[in-house]
């Protein structure tokens, strides 16, 4: 599971300490190895006055290295006005992408706790004034860390080398803060952390080495370095049942957005791969406006930009697919309801089937209402599998969550699922775990219809 291959993987190590003495004998070799591994960027974090200067020096010499500047809570006792002014001045450098690491460490208590809290607040104020994200260290100090973050009103940053519980993770994400996972997630006794790593929504997930500390398994005990990040990345990808490429794309995009590094993809993808399936993004249009729909919060899904500026033609769709037989299945599922474009779906599905591919449609089940006729017979022989969003146990709940443009949409979805079984070999219903959704009642509806029910987690797409 943790085997490393020689392929280049475009990761970003969002937290390492390249200036530390552990790298004095081979620093440039360590940096070269990271570059050879395919890294898009490294963020080296200063931990005191001198270290911030060294981090900036490295960032100045290497294009793909960026600096975070701050004073570690261990050294909070040495913080001074002079250091604060120095950080203010350095924060204006374009290669400085974050303030930190700062925070609270009640495990070692190297600085008095009241001093740590005061210095932490100063860093948060600086981050807000500089318009930079903050990198937070918190060890055995959950309550105070979260209280100080909340009172600061900060909404961009990361809890680095996250080791807290689910409640802390949820509090952080509700403030808009990301969670960065490091080598400890790979350790045998980290079952709580693994569970968190499995369920963090894509948008909040970052990865890091914290090198030279905390090497991941199977390298635990050695000095850590950025090129080992792939072990942690691969481990988390396995936990989330996605590929290493998916994990790299998601976390690299998140790091670029949070720290303002590099460029983001500027055009929507028509065909995009998740695991071994190819997804087709053919329209933004939809007859629902679901409260949980990812498109109202982000232009990206699993690191792919999906918001279309115009709908692709059928030719553009088939060109984007390439060889459909290379995938487990080709899925019509994007930022809208694919059956809004029924003719395009039928033509492209036929094209895929002629080339040995399998076709699935993810739909909201409104197609008969949209086209004012029973469209399912038209899909016979073209579609292998269909996944219909049931989304609620009754009309009132459906209307509240999904805000359909049609009346009686929920009743029509049930009719659609029943009819789909006549024309499509594999039919399933889906529901998102949300407050107010009665999963057991949805299960009963699916059982009465004779279809499987797939329960989806909120914010997990694809
Ligand atoms: S049906 Fe799907 S695409 Fe349409 S709003 Fe709901 S979640 Fe979004």
Mean of all residue-level pLDDT scores: 95
Structural class: alpha/beta
The largest sheet has its strands arranged as: 1-2-3-4-5-6-7-8
Q: What separation lies between the terminal Cα atoms?
A: 22 Å
Percent helix, as a range, is 25-40%
Oligomer: single chain
Let me know the number of strands. Answer: 17
At CATH level 3, the topology of the largest domain is TIM Barrel
Would you write up a description of this structure?
The mean pLDDT is 95. With 462 residues, this protein is of the alpha/beta class. 36% of the residues lie in helices and 17% in strands. It is built from 15 helices and 17 strands. Strand 3 (65-69), helix 3 (81-90) and strand 4 (96-105) form a beta-alpha-beta unit. The protein has helices at residues 27-37, 49-61, 81-90, 113-130, 142-152, 166-174, 191-199, 229-239, 244-259, 314-321, 342-354, 367-371, 395-402, 409-423, 439-449, and strands at residues 12-16, 41-45, 65-69, 96-105, 134-139, 157-159, 178-181, 205-207, 271-274, 277-280, 300-301, 304-305, 330-332, 359-363, 385-389, 426-432, 452-456. It folds into two domains: 12-259, TIM Barrel, CATH 3.20.20; 271-456, Aldolase class I (TIM Barrel, Alpha-Beta Barrel), CATH 3.20.20.70. The protein has an eight-stranded parallel beta sheet with strand order 1-2-3-4-5-6-7-8. The protein is elongated, with a radius of gyration of 25 Å. Helix 4 (113-130) packs parallel to helix 5 (142-152) and helix 8 crosses helix 9.
């Amino acid at each position: 599971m943790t085997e490393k291959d020689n392929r280049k993987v475009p990761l970003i190590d969002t937290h390492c300490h390249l200036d530390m003495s552990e790298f004095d004998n081979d620093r440039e070799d360590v940096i070269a190895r990271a570059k050879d591994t395919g890294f898009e960027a490294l963020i080296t974090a200063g931990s005191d006055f001198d270290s911030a200067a060294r981090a900036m020096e490295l960032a100045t010499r290497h294009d793909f290295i960026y600096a975070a500047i701050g004073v570690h809570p261990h050294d909070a006792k040495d913080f001074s006005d002079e250091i604060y002014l120095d950080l203010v001045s350095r924060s204006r450098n374009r290669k400085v992408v974050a303030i930190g690491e700062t925070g609270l460490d009640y495990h070692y208590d190297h600085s008095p706790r009241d001093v740590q809290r005061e210095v932490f607040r100063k860093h948060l104020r600086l981050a807000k004034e500089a318009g930079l994200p903050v990198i937070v260290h918190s060890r055995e100090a959950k309550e105070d860390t979260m209280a100080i973050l909340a009172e600061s009103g900060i909404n961009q940053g990361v809890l680095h080398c996250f080791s807290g519980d689910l409640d802390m993770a949820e509090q952080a994400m509700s403030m808009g803060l990301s969670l960065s996972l490091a080598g400890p997630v790979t350790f045998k006794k980290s079952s709580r952390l693994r569970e968190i790593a499995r369920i963090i929504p894509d948008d909040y997930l970052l990865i890091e080495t914290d090198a030279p500390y905390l090497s991941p398994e199977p390298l635990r005990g050695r000095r850590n370095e950025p090129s080992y990040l792939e072990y942690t990345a691969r481990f988390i990808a396995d936990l989330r049942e996605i590929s290493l490429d998916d994990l790299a794309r998601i976390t690299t995009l998140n790091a670029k957005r949070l720290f303002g590094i590099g460029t983001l993809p500027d055009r929507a993808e028509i065909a995009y791969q998740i695991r071994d399936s190819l997804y087709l993004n053919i329209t933004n249009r939809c007859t629902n406006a679901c409260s949980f729909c990812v498109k109202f919060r982000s232009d990206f899904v699993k690191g792919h930009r999906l918001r279309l500026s115009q709908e692709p033609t059928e030719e553009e769709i088939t060109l984007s697919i390439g060889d459909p037989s290379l995938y487990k299945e080709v899925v019509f599922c994007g930022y809208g309801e694919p059956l809004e474009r029924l003719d395009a779906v039928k033509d492209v599905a036929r094209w895929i089937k002629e080339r040995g591919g399998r076709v699935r449609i993810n739909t909201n089940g409104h197609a008969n209402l949209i086209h004012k006729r029973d469209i399912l017979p038209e899909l016979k022989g073209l579609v292998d599998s269909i996944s219909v969003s049931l989304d609620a146990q009754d009309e009132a709940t459906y209307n509240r969550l999904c805000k359909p443009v049609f009346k009686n949409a929920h009743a029509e979805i049930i009719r659609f699922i029943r009819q789909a079984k006549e024309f499509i070999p594999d039919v399933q219903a889906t529901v998102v775990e949300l407050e107010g959704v009665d999963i057991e009642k949805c299960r009963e509806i699916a059982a009465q219809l004779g279809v499987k029910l797939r329960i989806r987690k909120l914010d997990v797409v694809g």
